[in-house]
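Researcher: I'd like a candidate sequence for this fold, 417 residues long. If you have to choose between options at a position, lean toward the conservative one.
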């Protein structure tokens, strides 16, 4: 075993917490049994760069049960759970990650994960995929999986420049991922992270959401449910119109800056909140990012204009501004629901990680049929994940009668027939 983690002695607590997550992931547990019986991944090596949480551990356990050898690095230095790392190492997975590791260590750990010479890579943010493309390593890689919006953007950019070496499935874009994990999971964990870091009161507060994609919708929905007034900032006309139709106020960031008590970015874009916005904000405004990379809030610009900086609570830093006001940055501008909270709950990650598990199985079997490029999750995989989840919840669906099937495929029936 090769690994670089904080403390192997933390393994027992990690196992306890992983077991709790597993209780709420029935779909993944069923797939684990199937993989174990088939030995679907025997002889295959998988390198992964993921948020190292209890839910991720359940996913990797399913792949390992199918015979895979796995090497894992973090996809965010501040979302790593050291006890989970220890438990995974004890279970025979190569883990290279420590909470709070600096950038050189983070990059070194990615290289160590790739040293396994993987057949497949699993990514959350595309750092692993990019590292492969920046080095001559990875000659055995036949396919990859990307979990999050920002990583899919990077993979598509590689493909557009004709540099992508292998097929990548965009798990983020499939309905059983973004309808549920992004909307309900991110919606909940973002609010959870804000509350844990600040203990603020949402009822009556004005919360500004930058971006009304699936994550932004979920954040807005949860905030409204707790009594906040929600303002949306958007660059997309259709999404802005949808926010209006959902009963929300839509403003530019320049207009929203003086009004908000809490600001949350969920765009996948850099430089969404900038120095001119910080200077226009109320004294005491809170700044949180729910996007994958720490670029949505211009933290460097904030530090440049600040006259003072201090940590006032765990995951909460105060920045004094030259106008005498102060703003507060959560989680160093990193993904607040992963850093200050515990990420999305296991029950919703059961869907996203089942997608990943089945896509891994699909890619290792269909690799020779796919040219380099970014692909959607096959619809039958998406449908199966949804059906398995409904079965686990003991929810039954109606079915069409033979007459209804005939009607559905007929042109003869109409007003008179």
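Model: Candidate sequence:
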């Amino acid at each position: 075993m090769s690994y670089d983690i904080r403390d192997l002695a933390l393994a027992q607590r990690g196992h306890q917490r992983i077991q709790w997550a597993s209780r709420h992931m029935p779909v993944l547990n069923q797939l684990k049994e199937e993989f174990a019986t088939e030995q679907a991944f025997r002889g295959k090596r998988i390198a992964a760069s993921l948020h190292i949480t209890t839910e991720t551990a359940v996913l990797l356990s399913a792949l390992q049960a199918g015979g895979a050898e796995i090497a894992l690095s973090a996809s965010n230095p501040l979302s790593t759970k050291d006890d989970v790392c220890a438990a995974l190492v004890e279970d025979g997975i190569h883990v290279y990650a420590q909470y709070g590791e600096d950038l050189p260590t983070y990059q070194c750990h990615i290289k160590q994960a790739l040293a396994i010479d993987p057949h497949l890579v699993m990514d959350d943010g595309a750092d692993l995929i990019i590292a492969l493309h920046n080095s001559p390593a990875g000659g055995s890689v036949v396919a990859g999986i990307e979990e999050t919006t920002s990583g899919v953007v990077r993979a598509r950019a590689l493909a557009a420049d004709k540099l992508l070496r292998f097929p990548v499935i965009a798990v983020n874009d499939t309905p059983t991922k973004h309808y549920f994990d992004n909307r309900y999971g991110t919606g909940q964990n973002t609010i959870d992270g804000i509350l844990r870091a600040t203990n603020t009161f949402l009822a009556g507060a004005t919360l500004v959401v930058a971006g009304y994609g699936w994550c932004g919708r979920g954040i807005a929905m949860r905030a409204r449910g707790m009594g906040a007034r929600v303002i949306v900032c958007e660059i997309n006309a259709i999404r802005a119109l949808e926010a209006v139709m959902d009963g929300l106020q839509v403003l530019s960031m320049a207009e929203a800056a003086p009004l908000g008590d809490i600001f949350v970015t969920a765009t996948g874009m850099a430089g969404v909140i900038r120095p001119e916005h910080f200077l226009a904000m109320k004294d005491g405004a809170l700044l949180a990012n729910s996007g994958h990379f720490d670029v949505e809030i211009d933290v460097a610009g904030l530090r440049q204009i600040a006259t003072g900086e201090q940590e006032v609570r765990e995951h909460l830093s105060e920045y004094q501004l030259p106008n005498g006001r102060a703003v507060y940055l959560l989680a160093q501008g990193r993904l607040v629901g992963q850093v200050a909270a515990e990420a999305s709950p296991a029950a919703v990650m059961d869907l996203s990680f089942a997608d990943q598990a089945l896509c891994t199985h699909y890619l290792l079997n269909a690799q020779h049929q796919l040219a380099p490029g970014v692909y959607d999750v096959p619809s039958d995989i998406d449908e199966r994940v949804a059906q398995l989840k409904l079965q686990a919840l003991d929810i039954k669906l109606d079915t069409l009668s033979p007459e209804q099937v005939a009607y559905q495929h007929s042109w003869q029936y109409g007003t008179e027939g």
